[in-house]
């Protein structure tokens, strides 16, 4: 259903609300505007842990490593390229847990109509982590699923705005894990902050912590006047200038509930459908 | 792993003690400080026969997630997602006791779960 997607304007609004709370927590997020453009993204750097290859004694380790830990499950069964099997195994002997510098970017994807998480990771010495190290560093809770299909989960791509190489958490199925929340919000006539919900799901995968207070303190973006925003069941209004007005929504009232989305899933490579009108405020309002 | 939904208190052979003791009656806090968790399936995710569990406060979301995944016999390509208040997903390292304090109501913490093939 189309309400699982996010239009760019709502994305920006959600980000700004998110940012306000980040400032109050000194959580480190900032908004980066692209020069000469309307586009921007959220950015944060943080230290975390990751598994990196030990470089001190052994340089350029051969990837044919001895130890395959039991949880590097399905590489060999699953993928066509045998090489991945060897390369992607957890290399007990030569990798260890170490401090990693992460830089996270939250961008809006027009193709997917969802936010996308880009990130970089490097050791404290400044060496960028390679893809396998990033895979190894994924939170154990998600490791099994990642190892089943790592190439579907985290890969390297060019940052759409900066043109540099970043790791990306694939957004194709964002709808799947957003849907339960958005559907419930729709049914209960409440809204959610898409960015907060989305980040609470994707962040921990790659070491990004989202403090619980985001989930209670960040308001939803202002909405169409057609449905007066119900007092959300779980988010009290924050003290900072809360833009949750009953009626001063900037969004043009696209009052039709769900446009029959004949193109439900934006295909990954096609240009976005015009987001200025057909998309309802993608956050579960049910007019009337 | 016990297949019997009615008596999941059997010690698991291959994993540390998992949330156990279905409480049909309201769980009283014993010295281990447990909280009641109510698990609700979302969408076409299988429903657990036993929905109410007594879980130690110090248990992490990840541990609970693993438990549910095994209980549901999930495939390797599936990922379990857990939601609080049907509005966000708690971090896997979060303790259920903390979630209960913040989001519990009527003496229990309601968690919705959904399995999916996310990510890519």
UniProtKB/TrEMBL annotation, chain A:
Residues 217-288 are annotated as: Disordered. InterPro entries: Atg3/Atg10. GO terms for cellular component: cytosol. GO terms for biological process: autophagosome assembly; autophagy of mitochondrion; protein modification by small protein conjugation. Keywords: Autophagy, Transferase, Ubl conjugation pathway. One of its GO terms (molecular function) is Atg12 conjugating enzyme activity. Belongs to the ATG10 family. This is Ubiquitin-like-conjugating enzyme ATG10. It comes from Salvelinus namaycush (Lake trout).
Automatic annotation (TrEMBL), chain B:
Keywords: Acetylation, Autophagy, Cytoplasm, Isopeptide bond, Membrane, Ubl conjugation pathway. GO terms for molecular function: Atg8-family ligase activity. It is found in: Cytoplasm; Preautophagosomal structure membrane. Residues 1-32 are annotated as: Disordered. It is a peripheral membrane protein. It comes from the Eukaryota. InterPro entries: Atg12, Ubiquitin-like_domsf. The keyword Cytoplasm applies. GO terms for cellular component: Atg12-Atg5-Atg16 complex; autophagosome membrane; phagophore assembly site membrane. Residues 1-10 have a biased composition (Polar residues). Pfam families: APG12 (PF04110). GO terms for biological process: autophagosome assembly; autophagosome maturation; autophagy of mitochondrion; glycophagy; piecemeal microautophagy of the nucleus. The keyword Nucleus does not apply. Ubiquitin-like protein involved in autophagic vesicle formation. Forms a conjugate with ATG5. Belongs to the ATG12 family. This is Ubiquitin-like protein ATG12. It comes from Salvelinus namaycush (Lake trout). The gene is LOC120047715.
